[in-house]
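Q: What structure does this chain adopt?
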Amino acid sequence: MEKIILENYDKSKMKNLIVLSGRELGNNIRKRFKLDELDIDDNEYEVVFPESIISISTSFFLALFGESVRKCGSKEKFESKYLFNVNGSLKSNINDGITDALNNVDGLSL
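A:
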């Protein structure tokens, strides 16, 4: 299983963050890791968050993974493609994001 290590996006920036938020950051990380390409391959990926992160905003998650969730079509398929080993708080943020993506919430009105 390949890893997507979010800290590798920009180590100097990511080490100072405790919350990942905003569409712009989510979109930039999505582009950096070429998730549009990963979404359509047959591989599985472990997504690794920096240890300092305590929360993920819905807008960030939707920008980063919303399209991936919709391409997978279900929570189960998405979670079998992208594995998140995170604490309970981040898992709750991720579950909310998955639900919003499947319900076509865009994150702008949040």
